[in-house]
Amino acid sequence: MLIQRLAQAVVTMLIAVLAIFVAVRVLPANPVIAQFGQHAVPEKIEKEMEERGWNKPLWQQAITFVGQMAQGNLGESFARPGEKISSRLGQAVPATLELTFAAMLIAIPVGVFVGTIAALWRNAWPDWISMAIALLGVSIPVFFLAICLIVAFPLMPTGYRLPPGTQHQLHTEFYFFEALLTGQFQLAAVSARHLVLPAIALSTIPLAVVSRVTRNSMLEVLDADYLRTARAKGASLLRMIVRHAFPNASLSVLNIVGFQLGMLLSGAILTETVFNWPGLGRYVVDAIRDYDYAVVQACALVLAGLFVTLNLTLDVLFLVFDPRLREGNRS
Amino acid sequence: MVTDTLIYGRGGDANALDPIHTDIGESVKVIVNIFEPLVAYDDETLDLVPGLAESWETSDDGLEWTFKLRPDVKFHDGTHLDAEAVVFTFQRILDPDHPHVHSNIIPYYSSYSQIENIEAVDDLTVKFTLKQPQATFLANIAMFPSGIVSPTAVKKYGADFTRHPVGTGPFQFVHWKPKQEIVLSRFDDYWGEPVGIERVVFLPSEESSIRVTQLKRGEIHIADNLPPSEVDGLEKTPGVVVQSTPGINIGYLTMQTQKPPLDKPEVRQAVGYAIDRDRLIEVAYAGHAQKAKSMVPPTLWGHSDDVPEKEFDPEKAKQLLQEASQKYGFELPLKLELFVMDQPRPYMQQPRQTAIFIKDALEKVGFQIEIITNDIGQHFQRMTRGEHQLGLSGWSADIADPHNFLHTLLHSENINEIGGNNLSQYKNEEVDKLLDAAQFELDQEKRTQLYKQAQQLISEDAPVLPLVHVPVRIAQRDFVEGYKLHPSSQVRLKSARIAEQ
C-alpha cells in the first residue's frame, strides 16, 4: 500500500516536472531578452542564450532540465544575476511555512470550536451567527481584509517578519520557532507580533471551511445510533462530544485541513504581498512579473513537491487513524 | 524618539548591487550610496563636478581623457583607491571575457563601447583613449555603472560580489535579505563630509497604500514612488512633508510610422490636435505634471522652446483627418489600436486612465480606438517589434544629456527587435545626421543648436506626441533633515540627518 503510494508520488512529480517545463516554454516572451530590458545588446543576448542552453532543441533542453532537477540543482535566477534559486527558496519556504502554520493554529481550534457550537445549537442563533461568520470568511477578499486589519490595529506592525534593521542570532529562517527553541524569548515575542495580522488574514478561509466541515460531521455523528444509545444510557453531553463525536468528526477535519494546507501554501500570495512577507508566494509572483522563468519553474516544482508530500502524509495519517482503511486493506 | 537609523520605504527590492549588472531603479538607489564614480553630479544641480577624480583634462582632439584621482580614498574593505582599481572597474564593463565578471547582463555596456583603451599612468592618474570623440563621455563616466569597485573585494567574493558590494561611498554594505531589507551603515573612513546617520534600511513594500500607512505610523521615514493623489493626501498629514523636483523624463504617445495609416504625417498631426493635454494632466496626474512641448525636458539643456506648440484643436484634427481620408482613400472612423501597459511608470502614473482619456479624445474627431493592455514587459517587447499603431511610452534619463532622449528614442539606428527604443520606427535621414553630428561635437553651444534643429524637424514629422514631464515627489517624516531630492532622481542619503524630537 505505502509503496504503491510512494510510486504514485514519484510518477506525479515526474509529470509535474515535464508539464512545468513545457508550460514555461510555450509562454510568449523570450525570458533572456526580457532580462536585458531597455539596454539590450544583441551579442550579449546571444552569448547568454548559448550559455543558458536556450537555443538548443526543446528535447535536449528537456533532458538537461529533468537531469538537473533530479540532482536537486534548481539553477540560478535570471533576474538576479548570480543568485542561486535554492538559497532563496531556503529563505522563502520557511517564511511561508511559519505563516501557514500560524494561520492553521488560528483556523483549526477556532474553526472546530465555532463548528461544534453551531452543531450543538442547530438552527438556533449561535448556528446562524457562526455560519454567517463562516460565509463571510470565505467570501471576503484576503487582500481587502488584510488592509482592513492594518487600519483596524494601528499599533500592530504592518508587515515584515521583524522590525527593519533588527540584528539577531538566528541561523534558520524559522524565526519564531528558532527564537523560541533557543530561548531568545524577546525575539520570539517580536516575531510573533509580526505574525499576528498576516496569520489572521490568511486564516479566514480555512477557518470558515473547518467550521463548516466540523458542523456537518458533528451533526452526522450526533444523529448516529450509537450516540443516541450512549445518551440513553446517561452519558453527559461533554463526554459524548469529547469521547465519541470528536474522534469521528476529526477525520473529516483532518481531510479538509490537509486540503486547505495545500491551498494555503499557494493562497498565501496575496497575504504575503500586502504584508511584505518574504515567502514563496511573493517569490513566485515577482518571478512571473520579471519573466524569471528559472525561478517560476523551481517554485512550481517546490509547490508540486509540497502538495505531493502533503497528500502522501495525509494518506499515511488516514491509515493510522482510520482502522476501517487498514481492515479494507487486509481483506 | 531619537534614532540614528533612517528607514527608506520603496516599491520594490534591488536585483543586483554590482553596479555593472543592473539597470533597475531600486538597485540604483542603493548602489549610489555605496559606490562613487570618478565624476559626480553637483549636490543640487545636474552639473558635473569632481567625484573620485579631483580633476581631468582632455586632449584637443577629444580622444584622450586623463583623470587625477583623489589621494587617500579608502574602500570599505580598507584597501586604497588607486589607478589600478579604476582600470579594473572599467575592464569589467568592457572586456566580455573578464575573469571577474559572472553574468552577461551588462545593461550599460554600449554606453562605454567608445572606450578604446584605459591605462594607469601612475598610482593616481588614469588615461582613457576613445575610438572617436564622444560628447557624452564625461556624463557616462558619472553614471552609476562606472562606480569604482574594490578589486580585492571583487576577487574575494567572486559571483557573490553582487551581494557583498564594496565601494568608496559614504555608506558601507551590512546585509541584504531579499524582499526584506538592505541595511547600510555609515563608513567612518569616508573621504568626504562626515555622514549624518548611522544606518540606512531600504525596505521594499509593493503596495503603495501600505507605504502611506507605514509613513503615517512612522514605521518608515521616507516613502517614494507614490501615486499623485496619495502624495496630495500626505501633504496634509501632520508630521509629514512632501518634496518635489522636476524630473528629467518624458511621457509620450508613440505612433508606428512604418505601418498605415500612421505612415501618413497628416494622420499623426490629427492625433496631436485631438488630445487636450492640460485636461489629461488633471485627469491622470492629479495636476502634477508639466505639458510637454518637445521630447527633451525643459530642465535639461538643449531643450527647444521654439518648437510650435501643438494646441488642442479638435476641429482642426477633424479637418485634417477628413482631408487625409479623401486623399489616401480610407474610411472614417479610422480604426487604430492603442497599446497600454498594465503597471504605472514614473512618467505614466496611471496608464489605464491615460489610455481611456486618449481613446475618448480621438473618438470625438473620427478615430475608433481599441485599447490593448499588456503587462509591462510584453508591452515594450511588442512595441519594439513594431506591433502597435499607437502606444503609451516614456523615458527617464540615464544621463542628463539630450542625446539620451533624441538619439535613443528617435534615431533610426535604434530600430531593432531587441531593445530598440525607437518605438515609432521613425526614419528621417536629416534628423539622423543632426543627431550624429551632435554626438561627436564637443562644443556644447554647437550641440545645442544641432539638437534644436533636430527637435524642429521631429515636431514637423510628429512620429511621437510628447505628453508630459512628471516631477519626482516623495513624502517623508518631518524629522528627516538635509535630504534633498536630486533632479537626477538619484537617492543620495549622505546629507540626511534625523533631528532630535
From TrEMBL, chain B:
GO terms for cellular component: ATP-binding cassette (ABC) transporter complex; outer membrane-bounded periplasmic space. InterPro entries: Peptide/Ni-bd, SBP_5, SBP_5_dom. Pfam families: SBP_bac_5. It comes from the Bacteria. One of its GO terms (biological process) is peptide transport. GO terms for molecular function: peptide transmembrane transporter activity. Gene3D superfamilies: Dipeptide-binding Protein, Domain 1, Dipeptide-binding Protein, Domain 3, Periplasmic binding protein-like II. Residues 48-416 form the Solute-binding protein family domain. Keywords: Signal. Belongs to the bacterial solute-binding protein 5 family. This is Periplasmic dipeptide transport protein. It comes from Bremerella alba. The lineage of its organism: Bacteria, Pseudomonadati, Planctomycetota, Planctomycetia, Pirellulales. The gene is dppA.
